[in-house]
UniProtKB/TrEMBL annotation:
InterPro entries xrefs: AKR, AKR5G, Aldo/ket_reductase_CS, NAD(P)_OxRdtase_dom_sf, NADP_OxRdtase_dom
Site (Lowers pKa of active site Tyr): 83
Protein name from the UniProt record: Putative oxidoreductase YtbE
Residues noted as binding substrate in the record, renumbered to the chain: 116
Protein family: Belongs to the aldo/keto reductase family.
Organism: Brevibacillus parabrevis
Length: 280
């Protein structure tokens, strides 16, 4: 189990991925975004997650460059993820989208590149493009996002390379037990987006009680629960105090009983779209 912020999980291809990173979903371009990225790096984060559809890769890139310089770190010290959007899920278009993301970020490579959503009839061609990028050494690892078991099974019928990561909605109201088990069996690292359910869990009485017991915030309890389930997590925040707080989850451990209490909150409830029924 992770003991500090820079601890990593090893993907099946040997690439090391930090257990905890900063997500920047829907954070607009500008100084707030750049300062958040810089603050995360300054306080020890070594993973930043963005996507083409967030329309903030340029700002993330500026924050990365400035943050690494301030911290005296090299590009190789940071794990950067982006994602190819649905409109670019052809073979050539996915290759072009990767170059666009790199140019906007101002980077020479990505550590992880994901297919953002499993658009039927398109994601296999996009996956072929990601395999091309990976085999050419242009990206350290490739994976998917929002894939159910049947999407992964369909992909694996023709894939030369198995996804290294599956990033999906995951929080105490949506614990994805079967999908986590499948990914574990396949050696695919499970990663959470919206781990705090967009703030909707912060007044939950069960979590309040557990938080009081450990003298931690509810957010810290949830993120610790993620980590103890072997789930990589990328909480979003633009506030430096919250960025620091979200990373302060390595100095305690939830008991088996408390883990089970949190597990019991599952209702298979989503705040985002169902990957089997989305329209964008």
């Amino acid at each position: 189990m992770a003991k500090h912020l820079q601890e990593t999980t090893t993907l099946y291809n040997g690439v090391k991925m930090p257990w905890l990173g900063l997500g920047v979903f829907k954070v607009a371009e500008g100084s707030e975004l750049e300062n958040a990225v810089k603050a995360a790096i300054r306080h020890g984060y070594r993973s930043i997650d963005t996507a083409a559809i967030y329309e903030n890769e340029e700002g993330v890139g500026r924050g990365i460059v400035a943050g690494l310089k301030e911290a005296g770190l090299a590009r190789e010290d940071l794990f950067v993820t982006s994602k190819v959007w649905n409109a670019d899920l052809g073979y050539e278009s996915a290759l072009a989208a990767y170059e666009t993301s790199l140019n906007k970020l101002g980077l020479d490579y990505l550590d992880l590149y994901l297919i953002h959503w499993p658009v039927e009839g398109k994601f296999k061609e996009a996956w072929r493009a990601l395999e091309t990028l990976y085999k050419a050494g242009r990206v350290k690892a490739i994976g998917v996002s929002n894939f159910h078991i049947h999407h992964l099974e369909e992909l694996l019928k023709d894939a030369e390379i198995k996804p290294m990561v599956n990033q999906v909605e995951f929080h105490p109201r949506l614990s994805q037990t079967e999908l986590r088990a499948y990914c574990r069996e396949q050696g695919i690292q499970f990663e959470a987006w919206s781990p705090l359910m967009q703030g909707q869990l912060l007044d939950n009485p069960v979590l309040k009680g557990i938080a009081e017991k450990y003298q931690k915030s509810i957010a810290q309890i949830i993120l610790r629960w993620d980590l103890q389930h072997g789930v990589v997590t990328i909480p979003k925040s633009t506030k430096e105090q919250r960025i620091v707080e979200n990373a302060s989850v390595f100095d305690f451990e939830l008991t088996k009983e408390d883990m089970e209490l949190i597990d019991g909150l599952n209702e298979n409830h989503r705040v985002g779209p169902d990957p089997d029924n989305f329209d964008f």
